[in-house]
């Protein structure tokens, strides 16, 4: 039991073999008692109560309870029924009368709560040591900051004390600690996870986040918790499809060399270059982006209206007990008193201008890849400068929620000095499955152990293409295939790559007149051959919109695949063959373009 990996797949395998949930929970507490860090927890669930919860979840049933027997912790700005919520401020403490919405979902799924963890006070910070309680120790190197604000949540997972944890993320609090502790940090689309029962930092920008040992674990937790909450005014209905195979080709945006910032950390710079090379090897077409406007967005978070949003949470406490806040936290939030209502609108206007500038950059790519952090900072660095390092840690995270992007921080190969490597993948809102799918593939390439443990990354089961009930399968045979000029039309409408395939050997392919973009025409012909294509799924309610964009002589019909199944596909009218070139011999559009 001592060496049992706490990733979900390993625990469920153990449960299936006869291990009891009570044995795993007892092991949690043994590990907690054995480790030498008193700063991880603010409130630890009574072991007897946790064991009782493990006894009462019924027989092992990972289908109806996908998190059956899985131990977890939550950041102490998230409510737990009957437990104090402090947000790392004793003067703010109150006892919650019910679970936060997300905690209730996790318990319903069979997860067992172990405790509430330390944080940068009121989730204001990225270093993890701005707390009146003893700060947690970085799980990899105790001389380095643990990262915040979700410090305790990240360290608990990295040390293998629990399987996953909840944090929150406004400026990077769900990603920076993941990078510093060699784990996965999933920052969902804003509104996907309910904020009911969560002490806000910036209510309009906050999201509950998920720390886990693997991408699959984090996404499994995301699927359980991403339930629409009508009581949350900022809640959105966000799809949670299964993870998918990565498209054969995809465009990934990275900061251009001239706009990358590592604060003279050349080791981190080399680490990121190596990550880009790995992504290119698995199908990524790298496009460099001038990141200056992204940094301009990031600067708005602590230099304008959104500081005032933090002030709304603690205004009464600061008025009655000005000494109640941690000194650095007090200094940061107090800046809000200097802002006027007009300043707020100026900030909103500036953000909108920058969004318009950035929009075409994002539209031209599928995913953005950035270093999760630009460099590392020690506890000694923080003594010399308690503000500067914190700001610099947010270089690649502060802009994300302001631009309404989803993202995930994932471990990559260790740096040459042994410190953990990490990259963050970002995409438009609601594309959480896309970034997680690529992150899982990237993690598999990293060949790293999990967190600060010696546990190896579990081998993933082959992904079985799956469609949701409201999706239609469609075959792309030309410019709509991944990495080609019109693929963005599919992706923008929620299209998801399923698999590569071939037609039955009864089709001919033609290069049609006109363009750009240049298009092929597919026609049935008994004397034809099999043609390469890609199967994508498209939300049913977007199918009509997609059809409107298809020009004559092309249309949508039904074709037969080489396995005998039928699927909707692009087809061509006979009139479209006038002046067209027969390219059947190439076996597919990609091969023709390559020729």
Describe the 3D structure.
With 595 residues, this protein is an alpha+beta fold. The chain has 2 domains: 8-265 and 360-446, Amidase signature (AS) domain (Amidase signature (AS) enzymes, Alpha-Beta Complex); 471-594, Roll (Hypothetical upf0131 protein ytfp), CATH 3.10.490.10. It has 18 helices and 21 strands. An 11-stranded mixed sheet has the order 1-5-2-6-8-7-12-13-11-9-10, with helices on both faces. A hairpin with an 8-residue loop joins strand 16 (507-511) and strand 17.
Radius of gyration: 25 Å
- CATH class value of the largest domain: Alpha Beta
Helix content: 25-40%
Average pLDDT across residues?
A: 95
| Total beta-strand segments | 21
User: The biggest beta sheet, please?
Assistant: 11 strands, mixed
Q: How many structural units, i.e. domains?
A: 2
Secondary-structure blueprint of this entry?
Layout lengths: L7 H9 L4 H14 L6 E4 L2 H9 L15 E5 L8 E2 L8 E2 L5 H8 L3 E6 L33 H8 L5 E6 L6 H5 L3 E4 L19 E6 L2 H11 L24 E6 L10 H16 L2 E6 L2 H12 L1 H16 L6 H8 L6 H23 L3 E5 L7 H6 L3 H6 L11 E8 L8 E8 L3 H15 L24 E6 L10 H6 L3 E7 L4 E5 L8 E5 L7 E8 L3 H6 L5 E7 L5 E7 L8 E2 L6 H6 L1
Parallel strand pairs: 2-5, 2-6, 9-10, 9-11, 14-20
Antiparallel strand pairs: 1-5, 3-4, 6-8, 7-8, 7-12, 11-13, 12-13, 14-18, 15-18, 16-17, 16-21, 19-20
Helix pairs in contact: 2-3, 9-12, 10-11
Can you give keywords for this protein?
Amidase signature (AS) enzymes, 595 residues, globular, alpha+beta, eleven-stranded mixed beta sheet, five-stranded mixed beta sheet, 2 domains
